[in-house]
Amino acid sequence: MIRHFSIKELVPKHIYEQWGDMSWWFLDFRAIKTLEWLRDELGSCTVNNWAWGGSYDQSGLRTYQFYQQNSLTPKYIAKELVAESFSQHKYGRAFDCKFTNHKAEDVREFIKTNWNIYGYEWPITIEEDTNWVHFDTRNRPYHKVYTFKQ
Ligand SMILES: [Zn+2]
C-alpha cells in the first residue's frame, strides 16, 4: 500500500524504537494516501531523515520531544506543552514535506490547482508562507483546499 515511504520517515526515532512497525497505528490513513499522491505527482520528498543521520525527526507524528528540541525545557514541561497542543501533527494527520525538485510555493500552487480534480475526496489543509509544505487532513466540511498562516 505504501510505496514510497518507510515508517522511519514518518515518526520520531524514539517512537520507532519503542513501537517498530506498529508505529503505523499512529498515522491517519488519509494523510498517508495524500503524501503518496504528492510523491507520485511531484517526485522525491523528505519528511523525517533521522534514520540517515539527518535532523528532521518531528516532521510527521509529533511528540513531546518537539518541545524539548526547541528549548531547554525540562521533560515534564515539554509533556505538558504537548498535552495542551492541538497540532494536527500530534494526531498523525500532518506532514511537513521538503521536496527535492520543487519550491514549497510551487507545490502549494499545484495542490490548489489540482486537488479538487485529481486528488482524493477528503479536504486538505495547507500552511502558507513556509519553506516546507505542511499539509494535513483535519476534519473539514467541504472537499476543497483550505489554507492557514501561523
Ligand atoms: Zn506542519
Task: List key phrases describing it.
globular; five-stranded mixed beta sheet; 13% strand; binds zinc ion; alpha+beta
> What's the Cα radius of gyration?
15 Å
Strand content: 5-15%
Total beta strand runs: 5
CATH names the topology as: Muramoyl-pentapeptide Carboxypeptidase, domain 2
Main beta sheet: strand number and arrangement?
Answer: 5 strands, mixed
The CATH architecture assignment turns out to be 2-Layer Sandwich
- The first-to-last residue Cα distance is 33 Å
Order of strands, main sheet, comes to 1-2-4-3-5
| Average pLDDT for all residues | 95
Question: What is the topological layout?
Answer:
Layout (H helix, E strand, L loop, with lengths): L12 H7 L9 H14 L2 E2 L18 H5 L5 H10 L9 E6 L4 H15 L5 E4 L5 E4 L8 E4 L2
Parallel strand pairs: 3-5
Antiparallel strand pairs: 1-2, 2-4, 3-4
Bound molecules: zinc ion (ZN).
Describe the structure.
This protein has helices spanning 13-19, 29-42, 65-69, 75-84, 104-118, and strands at residues 45-46, 94-99, 124-127, 133-136, 145-148. The chain is α+β, with helices and mostly antiparallel strands and 150 residues long. 31% of the residues are buried. The model has no long low-confidence stretch (mean pLDDT 95). It binds zinc ion.
